[in-house]
Amino acid sequence: MTVTAVPDIHPPVRRGWYARNQIRVTPWLFLIPGIVFFSVYVIIPIFQSFWISFHQWDGLGEKVWVGTAHYERLLGGDRKFEVSFWNNVRWLILYLLAIPAGLFIALFLNQAVTGIRFYKSMFFFPFVLSQVVVGLVFSWFYLPNDGLFDVIVGWFGIDIRGGVLGNPDTATYGIIVAGLWPQIAYCMILYLTGLNAVDPEQVEAARLDGAKGWRMLWYVILPQLKPATFIAFVVTIIGALRSFDFIAVMTNGGPFGSTRVLSFYMFEESLSEFGFRMGYGAAIAVVLFFLMLGFIVYFLYSMWQGEKEAR
Amino acid sequence: MFPTPIGKRSRAAQITYQVALPVALTLWLLPLIAVATFSIRPESDFVAGNYWGMPGSFEFLANYGRVFFESDMPRYLLNSVFITVPTVIGAVALSSMTGFALGVYRFRGNLLIFFMFIAGNFVPFQILMVPVRDLTVNLNLYDTKTGLILFHIAFQTGFCTLFMRNFIRQLPFPLIEAARVEGVAEWRIFWFVVLPLMKPALAALAVLIFTFIWNDYFWAVVLTQGPDSQPVTAGITSFNSQFRAAYHLMSAGSIVAAIPPVLMFFAMQKHFIAGLTLGAVK
Question: Coil, helix or strand for A64?
Answer without folding.
Answer: strand
